[in-house]
# Entry
Amino acid sequence: TYEKVWLLTLSVAGIVVSILFPEEHGWVQIFAVIVVIGGCSCELLVSKQSKWCFIVSFFFYDLPQTVVYVANGYYVSALFEVIFWMPILFVSFYLWNKKEDKDDATLTEVKKINWKRDLLIFLGVLAVSLATGAIFTVVGGIFEGISDFWYIDAIANTFSCLNGLFLLLRYDAQWIAWYGVCICESIMWILAQQWVMLILQVGYITNTTYGLIKWHKYIKTHKVEEVSNANDGINNNKKIDDNNNETNNNNE
# Structure
């Protein structure tokens, strides 16, 4: 019920905001509404550990999102959509398809990453973000007038790439990286005065928290099952050893 209400509320909110704050180019707003509905649907499927999130993302989020990025001058984001996200979606779908949950085929097995490794990766991403932002700031200076948002655009996509790699590998840390994307993209859309896209960020932040809780719950319960299965195996081996010892004693 929560998921249905959440998705319906955000979809209606996106349509209402697009009507209240019309843009000069109406076609951009249509694409933005598609992105809101498609993006929220995709993220909800990720929280539900569904491999179909990647297919929905390609057709109803990444393709229209690229159009919205270009229309608002976020050329780094548009470039990353084409060269990184679109190819990795199909690779992720293939790899997730091979890791179905043994008890529920609608779920994909997900796993936890070491927090020390998380911290090192985060610091590495931060360093790369600053360097990338500096590079694109110089590029933006060369092509003055094309875009004024190179720096925040570059940082957002560095976090986005980290999220994509974690998602590919089914690590729960992808939700932490996605918080970084949400913060950066919220700033981007405020600067661009693209209010419809802020609805998407509200959806992202709330679903990121929801998905993080769901994934942690899955990982925790399945760890218990793994330990239980391992103990059963040890007990079975012990019984076999006891039976063998008893047989040897009888033979003697």
